[in-house]
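Q: I'm building a small set of examples for a reading group on sequence design. Run inverse folding on the following structure and report the sequence directly after it, with nothing in between.
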């Protein structure tokens, strides 16, 4: 009887030790194989082309939660959603002036064109009032522009298919910010969210 209890105890200890070992190994290998930094997460979510076929785990590119800001209206977020979803239909032209920029941003599609016009008029109004929307994915250049908004002159004109913007400043530092921002808008227009993710990864790496 005593012998039976002893061997039962031994079997339980063996199961316990092996079970614990197997569990620990499982946790070790699961953790070891996973990286949690922004860059590796991004690489797993997207292939080089941005969206791989058969990739089952993607960013939420329908609701785009990154377009929400600390101070944004539904209209502003919806305009940005339309702009990013339809970015391939945007035609953008930028001229760097000695004291600023002249940009033209146009689209044949009416919904996209309305979103662009609305975005520009609302965002330029914010800039003139110094009211930073603090959108999650916005670039550091935009924050810099909101710091110096009083030194920027903006003129907006509608064109047949969109909007033309002239922004100038007598401060050469501000002119640099305006030109950098205009180039960022062109990059986002051409490549959509891929451009945003790349810029955010560069900022994270630095
Ligand atoms: C494909 C994406 C985008 C397009 C096509 C676009 C378009 C524009 C255009 C045409 C302007 C006028 C200045 C210029 O022509 O360079 C502008 C200004 C502005 N945009 Fe966007 N935008 C985009 C993304 C964003 C995002 C993600 C934010 C985040 C908050 C944003 C916020 C602003 C602000 C605050 C301004 C006023 C600042 C200024 O005019 O210098 N935009 N945008």
């Amino acid at each position: 009887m005593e012998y039976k209890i002893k061997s039962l105890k031994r079997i339980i200890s063996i199961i316990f030790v092996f079970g614990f070992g197997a569990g620990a190994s499982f946790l070790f290998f699961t953790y070891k194989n996973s990286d949690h930094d922004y860059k590796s997460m991004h690489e797993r979510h997207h292939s080089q082309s941005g969206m791989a076929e058969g990739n089952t785990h993607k960013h939420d590119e329908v609701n785009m939660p990154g377009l929400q800001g600390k101070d944004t209206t539904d209209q502003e977020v919806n305009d940005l959603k339309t702009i990013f979803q339809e970015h391939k239909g945007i035609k953008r032209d930028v001229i760097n002036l000695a004291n600023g920029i002249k940009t033209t941003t146009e689209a044949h599609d009416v919904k996209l064109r309305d979103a662009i016009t609305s975005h520009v008029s609302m965002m330029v109004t914010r800039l003139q009032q110094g009211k930073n929307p603090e959108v999650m994915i916005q670039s550091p250049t935009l924050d810099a522009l909101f710091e110096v908004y009083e030194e920027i002159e903006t003129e907006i004109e509608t064109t047949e298919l969109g909007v033309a913007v002239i922004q100038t400043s007598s401060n050469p530092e501000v002119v640099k910010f305006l030109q950098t921002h205009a180039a960022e808008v062109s990059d986002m227009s051409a490549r959509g969210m891929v451009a945003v993710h790349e810029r955010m990864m560069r900022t994270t790496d630095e």
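Residues 27-42, 44-57 have pLDDT under 50 and may be disordered.
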